[in-house]
What does this fold into?
Amino acid sequence: MEGVRVLIVDDEPELVSALQERLSLRGFSTRGVTDGTAALACLAEEPFDVVLADVKMPGLGGLDLVRTIKTERPNIPVVLLTGHSSAQDAASGSDLGAFEYLMKPVKIDDLVRVLRAAVARGEDSK
It folds into this structure.
């Protein structure tokens, strides 16, 4: 699964940078943005295999992104990432079609495993 294209969306630029670096070292191709509106613009410009999005962001948050992505591009899996666990957010994300809901800080090996599984499922549904 070399070259899996991941769009990372989080309002913490340092986290976006760190995730890009760590995933790139593991063979992923990444692009990072710091808000949901920029994420939708990226999705309109280029193809991605999976989106990794923070749940809580100013403006367009992760749940809004899942809703929009699943409407416009249902085959792109979305993995939600949060530092503020909420059973309601997890249930809402799942209901909207999110592939997984992970807590920050996430272990990179766990994230890699989830991203690969999400891409594999996305490929199966094409």
Q: What stands out?
A: The mean pLDDT is 91. Strands lie at 5-9, 29-33, 50-54, 78-82, 100-103. The domain at 5-107 is CATH 3.40.50.2300 (Rossmann fold).
